[in-house]
Structure of Phosphatase 2C family protein:
Amino acid sequence: MTLVLRYAARSDRGLVRANNEDSVYAGARLLALADGMGGHAAGEVASQLVIAALAHLDDDEPGGDLLGKLEAAVRAGNSAIAAQVEMEPDLEGMGTTLTAILFDGNRSVWCTSVTPAAICCATVS
């Protein structure tokens, strides 16, 4: 059975915040939404860094270990946030949530929760 998804992506800053801390990616094989943590330093930067770390997963046919590839990309995003904070200490405390789906047409993997403490992943067939 082939997995077919229909989706759209849009983000709005709403009426409360001055800037939008969300970043979204919607491609042929990858859907991802990162919501920068409001009230913390540079949530919009954190969400952009995480999405940038995942975007390459959409470049090629994922094949193989989807869960491993997604988990590695999420860890790379978390490392990118830490590296940015090291270069710019005033960004200390920035962070983002993440919900992502990587699929190959027959099976999908989702991952949620990018924090310094946890990455939770699961396979859905």
Q: What stands out?
A: The chain has two helices and five strands. The domain at 22-124 is CATH 3.60.40.10 (Phosphatase 2c; domain 1).
